[in-house]
Amino acid sequence: MTWHTVISQAFAVGESPFWHSGEQRLYGVDIAGRLLWRTVPGSGLVERWAMPDEPGCIAPARSSGADSGLVVALRDRICRAPVWGGELLPIASLPIDAASQRANDGKCDAQGRLWVGTIHEPASGPRQPVAGLYCVDGQRQSPQGASVRSVLGGVANANGLAWSPDRRTLYWADTPSHTIRRWRCDVQGNPLGEGEVFVQFPGKPEGWRPGEPGYGGRPDGAAVDVDGNYWCAMYEGGRVLQISPAGEILASHVTPALCPTMPCFGGADGRTLYVTSARHGRGQDELAQMPLSGCVFAMRVGVAGLPVQPWREV
Fold first, then answer.
1. Which of 77, 109, 216, 314 is 20 to 30 A away from residue 89, measured at CA?
2. Which is catalytic among the residues 220, 225, 269, 285?
3. Is 227 a catalytic residue?
């Protein structure tokens, strides 16, 4: 299986890709570039939409059984975008300090709720485990808008959010600690208890530099296939891993960029694996060796992914 380049105009930090089956389009964000993007793969056309601040994640939206634009997590708030390129309508605020945290990885669950993880980005010093996971429910309204509740915490950089096919297992990663955890869930998909370590990766060796051996990267964004395997982008590891529900690494797919950020499944049969990547902040030597860093890639795989779940509201 071989990667090919879907979008060759590099993003700073490509993220949150999803396949819109109704439109046969691939959507995503550029966090550092402060924009949303979309493309019909193979068309050569990439549409960009500038955002007022960093978009952490996006998802399709449905209303009254019909497609109705997007839901967008910006730095400290959630917005609806009924029309591409149109007005952003605020629907909820995240209870975070926007000076040191912002929205990051997120997805909608089968009930149509948006789950958004945050990242700690201090002005100086290392990231601390003060970020968390929030559930935004547009079907439960308050005078302030959609309901927002804190679900999990204790991470520095929330990533890797995904559910098993039966929605009874939730996966969530803390990128700096190189840890993916999982929780059993109730029938509504809400995590129960403290969870357990799913996969613990070795940390970055002291003094390691990009291009050197001895480091496999840390877990970033993820997706799950119909067999329940967890596909994870390994930032600075230059690979996407396919991991069984038992935590066994089934396959390691080397990517054309050292910093893949998030995979998703799409295409007419759901068997095309797309992956975004990052270019922002990478060194010149690395970019000279991997000039496609920041681009979006795809390859055909032997199993279909779970379809994206849309946002739903009253």
1. 109
2. 220
3. no
